[in-house]
Design brief:
The structure is a homodimer. The first copy, chain A, contains 17 helices and 16 strands. With about 450 residues, chain A is α/β, with parallel strands linked by helices. In chain A, helix 8 runs parallel beside helix 9 and helix 14 packs parallel to helix 17. At the A-B interface, helix 1, strand 1, helix 3, helix 4 and helix 6 of A face helix 1, strand 1, helix 3, helix 4 and helix 6 of B.
Chain lengths: ~450, ~450
């Protein structure tokens, strides 16, 4: 086959620009467009009060903290007998792929969460987002392997699945909670279709987006279903230590048969810019020749092809913060947790004041009442879509997130997510006032 | 379909542990095992001199530099009029997915590399490794889309392709360099098989692993082939600014038709632990409705599903270093570049002293003579495999990397890679002495 032939065949391929259709299909995922839309609305209406961003409140940050955290970690290395050369290597060189602060994180998990695992079963990641990528990639070997997600669910997990071409099956979280029966039915349906569900992704505590928390019987039921059907549970935990009160036990601390891969994030408990999270993967993996190793080792292999290792500077800052709190995120976050609890209570009280029981029943409006976390769900008697959001921002000066964004297989058309973490009390009061007016107007218009 | 039925069907699925065969096939890539093997050899023979690690020499690092760099960036923000609140947001909050130091990197590219692109066409990544993942993912839409790589090639790019299930086709780099004819032939073969090669990955300057540098006519030829056949060139550039002398122009600076995605890394020029790299992707992307945007925007969308954003702390440290050098990596790295140049020359001179021309010709040994970078290739008259490596480490106290590791489709059986970047002069002298003795012994044994 000669050159001439090909030149005739493909002159048009030399034409610029690139066609979007020629790029990976995950880039045409409507979720990406909706996020862009939300950003545009926020940009177009800068005076609107936004209940959209799931960011930590930054009033607790102080620029000098960075330096304090780093010094604290350097002191720790010195106290452990590190030489100048060791310290330079730790701070500047390529580091171990699985992370250099695993002992410190393992210690924190023991103290805070009653999760007692060896450091070797932990992989430090670039935020929990990278941990999701590693786990989903490791667990899916072929086209029949699928991921189950509690739905509505965090867009990061469905994004990872799309990026990797892994089919996602939604298991709906009902208003009265996640149900064991729904999960088992989903597993059976998947298998009947010749597919192999590998894991279920859940946020048991103060879930993003719904704000719901799984009760203890549900946690035990999930573990039992996972054990019975041979799937893993991917437990994400970003809001546990920034919520008031004592949380229920994690799935991982209840896990007696290594069915749970636990994901953690320091984005809310230390700071988001560090981009440090982790996976606890103490599952045994056995190969054809009977050699065994930890799933964490496999995750680290994948990580070596994604980010090589997590920023040593970021790891040092997070370790410094943990060491400053004697490993207890619960202690380190006592003040923020109280703050977020107040913000949530203020929001719920303000909603109740503006849309009292009788009024909201008449309208067909209701909301859940999380005791912590960053989010709550408001059900409304109209389609909470992009058009409604634009009207809300433009005419009423209040922004929220359409719940539909979080349903990978459709749903949530009449619900919206409010985030309470980033606003001041004054903005919450004014924002709920505006929201109530919008809901009244929109309900009577539809 | 009832529960009972399924319980009968799948009791064995509940059995632990996980089977390796049930994990993603990239985890069974032999390259991962060879890397493990290399690490084990290094661990088993701690007194061996190792020419294996491609790490920067860390004699130039100083712990206090971190603090100086961070302060320098904070001063820069203040000088630009940032308020205390702006600084806290920049350092602690979630940042822009595409990065917060793009202007500073764009400035550096203009000054050092004559690459003049708007900051919007840059995406700051967690090392060049993440940039490879984003680019390969973006460019591959379906199973027919393939990646071409100059072979031997960096394992990070083939790792990314395996992780994403993208077929890789090797285009062999011959001893006299990379050839336009080989590239065109590979493109034609791919198309004849119904596949669509999307891009070619190359390291034009002091390549890892071979150490070769493309001459200027080859650079122009690659651009012409890319233009003619409608593929992109992914240009990686980690060693340009840590090599002595003035490098040849980058492909990107010669690119008149936006055929080049340029990747950069600050691992060698600032420090590896920061994990900061970038992609320059100024290609236009057009969708079905005729809307256009930059490829960089699409890469950032993918990044939002991989790491959300690059550590703000790491970005601040790198920006501080760049600002301290007035944006010129060439100036900032004058001393390291001279050091690495010396190390390479010392290695070549020492090899020549131990295996002079006549002797190496008789043995069938030869090597290339890079003028910079971290690596060179030694061709030997025996199989440079794991068994040979073990003998070399055990009996001669010297470690190197088998070149076969870097051939995605086989090859390089009688070649080894030496890295000269991490060793002291004394170790280079002693190490080459040991290596010469090993080569003599192995050559006479085979």
């Amino acid at each position: 086959m000669g050159l001439d032939l090909v030149l005739e065949e493909s002159p048009e391929t030399a034409v610029h620009p690139l066609r979007k259709d020629d790029l990976h299909p995950s880039l045409s995922d409507p979720v990406l467009d909706t996020m862009t839309f939300l950003n545009e609305v926020t940009h177009r209406f800068p005076d609107a009060i936004s209940f959209a961003p799931g960011r930590p409140y930054d009033g607790f940050f102080d620029t000098e903290q960075i330096f304090t955290y780093l010094r604290r970690y350097l002191d720790h290395l010195a106290a452990q007998g590190a030489t100048e050369q060791d310290v330079r290597t730790a701070m500047y060189q390529y580091g171990p792929t699985a992370g250099q602060i695993r002992e410190i994180v393992a210690d924190s998990l023991r103290k805070d969460e009653d999760i007692d695992v060896p450091a070797e079963s932990i992989v430090i990641t670039v935020g929990a987002q990278e941990a999701m990528l590693l786990v989903v990639r490791a667990l899916t070997a072929g086209p029949e392997d699928t991921l189950l997600v509690a739905s509505p669910c965090y867009v990061g997990i469905t994004g990872v699945a799309r990026l990797l071409g892994v089919p996602v099956t939604a298991v709906e979280e009902r208003e009265d909670g996640f149900s064991r029966a729904d999960l088992e039915a989903a597993i059976l349906r998947e298998r009947a279709r010749g597919r192999r569900p590998r894991a279920l992704y859940v946020i048991p505590d103060h879930s993003n987006p719904s704000g719901t928390t799984m009760d203890l019987p549900t946690r035990h039921a999930l573990l039992e279903v996972a054990e019975r059907h041979g799937i893993l549970l991917i437990e994400d935990s970003p809001y546990r230590r920034v919520s008031p009160g004592t949380p229920l036990p994690t799935l991982k601390s209840l896990d007696r048969s290594r069915r749970v891969v636990h994901l953690g994030s320091f984005a809310k408990t230390v700071f988001p810019g560090a981009r440090v999270g982790f996976a606890v993967a103490d599952q045994q993996v056995v190969d054809d020749e009977g050699r065994t190793g930890l799933l964490a080792v496999e995750l680290a292999k994948i990580k070596s092809m994604v980010t090589v290792n997590t920023s040593s500077l970021s790891q040092a800052a997070v370790a410094g913060a943990l060491l400053a709190g004697d490993g207890r995120l619960s202690v380190l976050n006592a003040e923020p947790a109280a703050y977020y609890g107040d913000a949530m209570r203020t929001t719920l009280r303000a909603l109740d004041a503006r849309l009292p029981e009788a009024r909201r029943t008449a309208l067909g409006v209701r909301w859940n009442e999380p005791t912590g976390g960053f989010f709550l769900t408001v059900h409304v008697p109209f389609r909470a879509d992009n058009a409604a959001l634009t009207r809300s921002a433009q005419e009423f000066g209040v922004i929220w997130t359409p719940m539909t964004y979080f349903y990978p297989q459709g749903g949530g058309h009449q619900a919206l997510r409010l985030s309470t973490s980033y606003l001041t009390t004054a903005d919450i009061e004014e924002g709920t006032e505006r929201l109530a007016r919008f809901i009244e107007a929109q309900a009577s218009a539809s």
